[in-house]
Amino acid sequence: MTARLLIVDDSRAMRAYVRGSLRGFVDCEIDEASSGFEALRLLPRKDYKLVITDINMPDINGLELVKFVRASERHRDVPIIIISTHSSKQDQKKALELGASVFLPKPFTPPDIIDVVARLIEEKGGES
Amino acid sequence: MSKSSQGNKAIKEFLAEAQEFVESLSRNLIEIDKAIKTGEPDPDMVNEVFRGWHTLKGLSSTFGVEPLSLLAHDEESLLDDIRLGRKAFTPQILDSLFESIEEVTKILGIINESGDIKATGYSDDRTKTTPGQSPDSGQASGHGKEDDVPVIDPKNLIDAEVLEVLTEFEEHRLKINLQQGQAIYKMRIGFSLMSIDQELEDIKGRLRPIGEVITYLPSSESNDPDILDIDVLLALHQSRDNLEAALDGVEAEISTLVPGRYTPKVASDTIIPAPPTAEQLSDSSETGIDVAAASEIESPGISERGLVQNQKEQPLSLRSVSQSVRVDIGKLDHLMNVVGELNIIRNTITKISDELRSVSEQRELAIELHRVSRGFDRRLAEMQEGILEVRMVPVSQMFDRLSRMTRKMSRNIGKEINLVISGTDTEVDKLIIEELSDPVMHIIRNAIDHGIEDAGERRSVGKPEFGTVALTAYQKGNHILIEVEDDGAGIDGEKILEVAVANGFLSKEAAASLSEREVLNLIFLPGVTTTAKANELSGRGVGMDVVKTNISALSGVVEVQSELGIGTKFTITMPVTLAIIPALLVSVDENTFAVPLNTVAEALTISGADVNKVMGLETFTLRGQTLPLCRMDGFFGRPRHNAIPKGSRLLVASLGQRRLGLVVDELLGQQDVVIKPLGQSLDETRFFAGATDLGDQKLSLVIDTASVIEEFFTSGEDFTQPAAPAE
Amino acid sequence: MSNSIVIPDMAKLNAESKNSVTDGKESDVMLVFLGFTLGDEEFGVDLHLVKQIVIPPPVTWVPRVQPHILGVISIRGNVVTLIDTRRLMGFEVSEQHNSARVLLVDVRDERIGLLVDAITQVRRVPVQAFEESPDLDEGTMTDHVVGIIRPDKQTQVTIIDLKEILLEAMR
Known about the structure:
The complex is a heterotrimer.
Chain A: E1 3-8, H1 12-22, E2 28-33, H2 36-42, E3 50-53, H3 62-71, E4 80-84, H4 89-98, E5 102-105, H5 110-127
Parallel strand pairs in A: 1-2, 1-3, 3-4, 4-5
Helix pairs in contact in A: 1-5, 3-4
Chain B: H1 2-38, H2 43-62, H3 66-83, H4 91-114, H5 160-163, H6 168-179, E1 183-192, H7 196-207, E2 211-219, E3 227-236, H8 240-246, E4 252-258, H9 278-287, H10 299-318, H11 329-357, H12 363-391, E5 392-394, H13 396-413, E6 417-422, E7 427-429, H14 430-451, H15 455-460, E8 467-476, E9 479-486, H16 493-502, H17 508-513, H18 516-520, H19 544-553, E10 557-563, E11 567-575, E12 580-588, E13 591-596, E14 600-606, E15 611-614, E16 617-622, E17 625-631, H20 632-635, E18 648-655, E19 658-664, E20 666-674, E21 688-693, E22 699-703, H21 705-715
Parallel strand pairs in B: 6-8, 13-22, 17-19
Antiparallel strand pairs in B: 1-3, 1-4, 2-3, 5-7, 8-9, 9-11, 10-11, 12-13, 12-20, 14-18, 15-16, 16-17, 18-19, 21-22
Chain C: H1 10-23, E1 30-38, E2 41-46, E3 50-54, E4 69-75, E5 78-84, H2 85-88, E6 101-107, E7 110-116, E8 118-126, E9 130-132, E10 145-149, E11 157-160, H3 162-170
Parallel strand pairs in C: 2-11, 5-7
Antiparallel strand pairs in C: 1-2, 1-8, 3-6, 4-5, 6-7, 9-10, 10-11
């Protein structure tokens, strides 16, 4: 079954890169959010199988988003991939503590993200 | 297959985004430059600069643009240190950042031109790791500013609930505010999911004048599925009353996390200025310094101020949520061409409908067709206008770049320059902007290099030590005017004349007869420079001739005015757009030409009897003023009649301050024409801006009036005589 | 509305000629030229150089340019410079006949039109039948003769380096 994914990153190019990497390899439909706020607006409306988010974004940061997703009824168990540079170990640690599934450091190759996404979706599919 | 096309799209997005980054970074750096002259830059802005580099680093490493990612990495760690208070924002750092922008622009230029992003980044064989995982690269150490003030650990004051979601930067900002004794509030505000963007901008605008928002914490406890509760974490720099006033009309549940320790004057390394005087208050909106620590001022007043600022800043912050698309100019050109073709079809339809009307049994059909084609006309005109509008961009795009360069240049040359920019909203065709920045830069460089005197010299003549260069843009009718004015030494006309005569550009006698304006315009000749010092005249090809050529190529003119000891002003006059222009259609020796309407002041009927001769040159007296005549048939190398035939037309061409009467055989009408460029095989002729298709399958040349005027006045050839075709 | 194209499937021809050059053994490598006439002489140019052949559209005279430039024509909405090939090659200028055609070629990123008296045919000759630059009188034009082919006993075609000639003229 086609899985619905949400990519949250304020960089258009990064969203296009992730989308382009996954297309054709992972059976999924992708929604994009250019800010944490946009993600907050999308999240309560659809069932996402996976959320991919950056940390450093204006206003609502990735950590807050992770916490929000984890606290929500609808997406409590959805896997979350953090894509960010290595710049802050502290932020990385916090993200994982808050319940992010995987930290995928930038830069990553298309196979990297395909691999991680495919794994997480399957894992999840197996459980439920 | 689909993957690689996706990849291309991503690369395009990458280039576009990197370009946007450069533009916004320049804007922010210029703001920061202003701010550090008076104090500390806005932490939000510093953070935005950091995030910009951060994003660029992530992107360029992902896309395998090694040099860019290395550069971005360095700048990112530098900015990280600054935003986390480990380093101060010095002018030297600012300089290096400006240089880095140049570097980025260069790299992007190479990628753009070669179309190659360095294939490795997108293939699977890349083994690269994130460059330099240790941001503690020496430079960051030692300057710890946080050591100067007692360290406050937010852990003892703020819930772990809140702390766990703060990024390192947000935590740092919280700490700084706590150290300053600012009160920390948490405000729960319900946002409607439908209009969350606008509501957020509204809240930001309200809070910005009175404090610093640390972060927004979304809560998932809301009962209403359409409402999203968000906790705004605010460091309040003013009184609680001011907060209530700012939030007037907004339903907010306010709770105090940390009460403020009221400090009348805070440490100097913070962003908050001393309590403002009335004077400061009155111009604070201009300097951009937030009105802070003003608890002694009554709250209603503050709330008004807050609102004013709020409105003023709103459009700025809205930029981030605006829906815009970047379009390749080539695509717009294509659309414009299509509109041009549609124009041709429209003409054909009109012709058919006219013919149909003369057939009596088809009258009704003809009327119907006429009605329909009228509607088509209107829509077509709308479409044309729409496309033209899309092509227009504010000159701020160019001015930002210019102020960056000016800054750099003034440092290099060692003259303090105050660049005053106005009219940045003026819109110009994107193509013109692209082509214009080099010539304008040239003029500015010239002003700084030769116009503005040394500080010592300036002091001795009673001028302020720093020179002022004013860069102004405004629209006047169908033209855009760009002025570069300096308060330097001015151009010495005598010196210019000396050089021009010495270089053989004109005879002593001719020199004596030149008007002041004509003398100044000699600087546009190759080899004549504007510098007033005789010993610097040689070997310093400032290249104002190149400036002139480039501007002429865009159907523009450049003129100079100068007053010795007072300053110099260059004025560039450009058409608003190059794509579609209204033109007069004229015939010369049975050939149809188009003359851009904006270069023609008026059209008159003329015959041989109206012509006077001045030294053998044909002239016409127009309202008491002598107008030299250029007979276009002769100018174009065709045989001409002895006297101007009856019924000939005279077009009074005026560009800048020069006027010339163009004599043509007939005036055929007026039409909007789409100008198409001529191939480079015709580079030898400068007299045509391009060709246009008038719908009869035959092209008509569009006369470049500026070049004709220039040729007429400089060549010394007598175009009143039939000339042999150029060989 | 559009200029009629005499050889619409130029692409097909090109593909054919390419195959013949690359697929065959050395012995049956074919060279493909487009033949055209100026006066009573037939010339040949590399077929791949010619992008399109059109009936001459109305020409717009351009003042004050070199004499071999006839003017500009409109080809699919683009402005193309039209060259009088007779003048360019130093031939007598003569009346334009109905057989006249314009060859469109790309030189230095620019599409240029060349007016010729007539098109003969596409000449395919085996590589052995190509006589490389014969010794001719020294002269600017003879320098651009790259060879001669004789498709049959009566016909002789002078193969010229059109690109080089154009480049020289545009300098």
